[in-house]
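writing this on my phone so excuse typos. first protein, seq and then structure
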Amino acid sequence: MSDKAAGKVPKTRSGVFHSKSGSDYVVLWQGQEICRYESIEAFIDAHAAGLEALESSQADLLERYYNSIGISSGRSGGES
C-alpha cells in the first residue's frame, strides 16, 4: 500500500500549489520553495520561456558537436 493510500503525507512535497493566502502560486521542490507567481498565467509564461531557452541551448550544443565532427547542421548556412 502506498503512503498516499495509507493516508500518510510525504515529508517533502514537489509541485505548484495555490498559496494559503490565496493571492499567488508557490513552486515547491522537495519541500523547498523555489519561487512564487502572481497568477497561473505568469507561471505558464515563465515555464514556456524556460523551455524555449532549453530548446535553443540544446540546438546550439548539437550544432557545435556536429560541426566538431565535420558535419554541417544546415542551421547557419555552413559548408558541408
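second protein below, same order as before
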Amino acid sequence: MALLTVSGLGVTIRDEALLRDVSFEIAAGEVLGLAGESGSGKSLTALAVSRLLPATAAATGSVRFEDQELLALSERELCAIRGRGIGLVFQEPATALNPLLTVGAQVAETVRIHLPVSKAEARERAARALRRVGLDPARIPLGRYPHQLSGGQRQRVALALAVALTPKLLIADEPTTALDVTTQAQILALLRELSAADGMAILLISHDLAVVAEMADRLAILHQGTIVEAGRTGTVLRSHHHPYTAALVRDFTPAALARRRRGPASPPVLEALGIVREYPGPRTGFMAQGPALRAVDDVSLTIGPGERVGLVGESGSGKSTLVRTLLALEPPSRGSVRVAGETLAARPTVPQRRLRRLLQVVFQDPYGSLNPRHRIERIVAEPLHLLDAPLSRRERTARVAQALVDVGLDPGSARRFPHEFSGGQRQRIAIARALVVEPRLVILDEAVSALDASLRTQILELLGRLSEARGLAYLFVSHDLGVVRAVTDRTLVMQAGRIVEEGTTEQVLLAPRHPYTQALVAATPNLERALAGRASGA
C-alpha cells in the first residue's frame, strides 16, 4: 500500500497552470526521484504536497498521505503532520533557518512542538540529530547561529530539523546541492540508512542525475509542469523514450564543456600572498579568551588573465572565508591581496573603485544575495556605480537587458522580483549582475550548484565564451569535481584552511597525490558508475 498517493495534481497561479495532471506514488521505505530542469515545477510539486503554496496559488487533484486527504485538511491539522509525519528539507537553508535562533534551539523547538518532553531532553535530542548529520556539538556548538556556519553546514542543520522526529515521509528538495562531495556522500548514506532502518519514504528532488541514480528506486521526469516519463530508475536513465529525458542525460555529462586549456599569463589579475584569516576564540571565562580560530592558514595563489582556476574542499575547509578575504569583504589577519598589480584594501578609498569593478563575485546562495524588495533591473544594475562615467537611464536599461540576455533570461523579467523566479533562475540573475560591469575576474562561489544539468551546461558555455572573447578569468569555488575538471586550467585543494594540493586540473583530479584529494575524488557521484551498479532493468 502506498504511503503517499498524488493523483491528477494541478497548481494554478494567477490563472497560469504551472503543474498539470501530476501523478505518482511512494511506498514506505521507497525513494522516488523527481528530476527536471530549473523551472519545470519540481519545487512547486513539493510545496503542493506539503500544502505550503503561496496564497495566490490554487491546487486541484488529490494528495493522500496514509488515509488522509491533505488538500482537505485545515492548517491546524496540517501542522500536526508536518515535522512528525512529513519532514521537509528546502533547497535554500539560509532562508529556511531562523537567523535569530541558535541551531540547537531550532532543532529542539521542532522536538518540543510535537513531543511532550522537557527542554533538557529536547536539547539532547537536538544534539543527537545534529550529530547524525555530521555536526558534532563538540566541534560545532549548539549555540551557534546560522550565519556563523558555512552553506553546507546550514544544509545539514536543515536536514537535522527534518529528520529529528524520524518522519514517515521525507521531502528533500535538492538536499545535497550546497554540500561538498564527502559530506554529500555522508548525507546520502544517512538518508539510505533512515529509509532502510525506519521504513522512511523519500521524495528526492534533484537536478543531479548521478545522485538520483545512486539513491532512487524509481524516477519521474518533470518537464514544463508535466511528468513526461516515469519508471524504474535504471530503465528511465538507460532506455528513455522521451526526447527531454535523453537531453537531460546527455547534458549531465560535462565532457562537452572541455576546451583549449590556457596557462597563466602575466601580469596576473589577482595575487594573494600569505593570506591568514583568524577569528577570536570562544570565551573560556569572564575575562578569558580561548585561542583564535584560524580559518585560512598561509594561502597564496595567482590567477592570470583568461585563466580558470578551481578551488575545491569540503564544507568548512575555509573556501568561503578565503573568497571573502580576496574580495576585501574581510581584512586578512596577515598577508595581502593585489588586483591588477595594486593592493586591495579592506576599507577601500574612492580611487580603488576601479579595482572593485575588475573583481566581481557570484555567491553560493542567490536568494540571500538578492534584495527581495528590489526589482531585477535595480539588482542587476547595482555594480554600475563602479564605472568611471555615470550612465544615462537608457544606457543602464540597455546594459541590464543585455546582461539578462547573456544568461538566458527574458529582458522583460527585469520588472519582476526575486521571489518570482526559480532557484536556478535567481542564480542566473546573480551571474548577470556580476557580468554587467565587464570585470576581468569573476569569483564563482558554488555558482552552478543550484542549476540543473542542461542549464549548468549553458551557463558554463557562456562563461567559457566570455573568457575566450574578453580574457575574463574565473575562480571556480565548487564541490562538483566534474564541473571543475571540465572547465578549469588549474585546481587548488583546500583542507582545514590550507592548500594541500595544487597543479593542473588533470594532474590533481586524475592522479591525486594527497590522501584528502583522493578521498574527494572517490566520493564524487558518478552517473555511469551508478548505472553500472544496477541490475539490467532496475
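Residues 181-198 form the longest helix (18 residues). thats all i got for now
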